[in-house]
Fold:
Amino acid sequence: MPERVFIKVGAGYDGRRHERVTSDKRAPGGATDEEVAMMILPALVGAQLTLLVANGVPTFNVEPACRAAASGSIGIKQDLAVCLEDEKGAREQLVKEWHQFAASDKTLCTRISTTGGSPTYTELLVCLEMARDAKKLPNEDFKVRQ
Structure:
């Protein structure tokens, strides 16, 4: 069956003419080129994040999180200066211990810390410590006692 090409023409928000060329050409698995590209994109982004995390402790702007803590909007009210100092200490500890954490844990915890609200070093550090310590637990099946 010959490949069909479609051109969709429309106006963008800027009022200029935009063309989009699509094709019904399919990869061996039955996916279109566009679908294949959408499947590859998350892998590339994940690989980039993994590479970034492997290089060293990420740099976060913790001030928004500390300002939220100081206003009491995220729970117990904390002094801004104390919060910033705590975050500085957590980052220093991360720098010292970064090599001890598994690469997969660094990637996962960095993703978790940067998802949603403002990231903090304390959140990243706690996540990494919990992941590390969980691996030290005995790997045995626990039976329910009756």
In short: The mean pLDDT is 76. The chain is about 55% helix and 10% strand. Residues 56-136 form one domain.
